[in-house]
Amino acid sequence: MTLPAPVRVKVCGTTSVKDAVLAAEAGADALGFIFAPVSRRRVSVPVAREAGLNVGPAVARVGVFLGQGLDEVLRMAEGARLSAVQLHGPLPDLYVREVARYYPVLRVLRPADLLAGAGGQTPPPPGVTPMLDAPEPGGGVPLDWAALRDVFPPGAWLAGGLGPENVAQAVRTLRPAGVDAVSRLEAGPGVKAPERVRAFVRAAKEAWPPELSTG
C-alpha cells in the first residue's frame, strides 16, 4: 500500500532565535514569521533572517503578509531569506501569481470561501497551495472540520485554533498536507511555550497517516 506523504508542521508567530531553534529541535518542518503590520507578533526582517539562519536550510521559513504591496513583500522576503510566502486577505489573482513567480505561496482561504465554491473547485495556479484558516487568524478558535470535509481542497494546509489537544483530530478529519499553529503554542503573544510546541509537533506527526490512526 502506498501511504500519503507525512503531514508537515509549521510553527507560526516566531519572534526570536530561541523560539526558532525550539521549534526546529521539536521537529517542525517550517517556521512562520509574521510581517503583517497589524499583528502583535510582528517581527523585523533582521530578526527573521537571523532566526532562519540558526535553524538551517531543512526548515522552511515562511513570511506572513496582509495587505502589503508587491514590492514590499518581495523586498522583505529577500531580506529575511524566506523560502515561501503566506498571503492573507482579498488579493487580485494577478498579485498572487506574481508573488508565485519568485516564492512558493500559501494562499489563505476562509471557510466561507470554500463553502461558496471559491478556491476549492479548481486547481490553484502553479506554485500556489491553499491554506484554510479561521475568519480571525490567531484567535485560537478551531474550525468545524467535519462540516468542511467535503470542500477541503486536496493538498491544502490547515490552520485556525490548532493546538496539542486537537491537531490529531483535525488531521484525521481533513487529511491536510500541513498544519499551522500560533496562539495555542504560546505562553504569551509572540512567546512560545516549549512544552506545547513539542506536544503539538508530536501529536500532528503521530496522527499520520490518518488511515492507520484511531480515535
TrEMBL record:
Family membership noted in the UniProt record: Belongs to the TrpF family.
Pfam family, one: PRAI
Protein encoded by which gene: trpF
Domain of life: Bacteria
Reactions performed catalytically: N-(5-phospho-beta-D-ribosyl)anthranilate = 1-(2-carboxyphenylamino)-1-deoxy-D-ribulose 5-phosphate
Domain N-(5'phosphoribosyl) anthranilate isomerase (PRAI): 9-202
Keyword set includes Isomerase: yes
Coiled-coil parts of chain: none
Enzyme Commission number, as recorded: 5.3.1.24
SUPFAM superfamilies: Ribulose-phoshate binding barrel
Species of origin: Deinococcus aetherius
PANTHER family on file: N-(5'-PHOSPHORIBOSYL)ANTHRANILATE ISOMERASE (PTHR42894)
Keywords, alphabetical: Amino-acid biosynthesis, Aromatic amino acid biosynthesis, Isomerase, Tryptophan biosynthesis
GO MF annotation terms: isomerase activity
Pathway: Amino-acid biosynthesis; L-tryptophan biosynthesis; L-tryptophan from chorismate: step 3/5
Entry protein name: N-(5'-phosphoribosyl)anthranilate isomerase
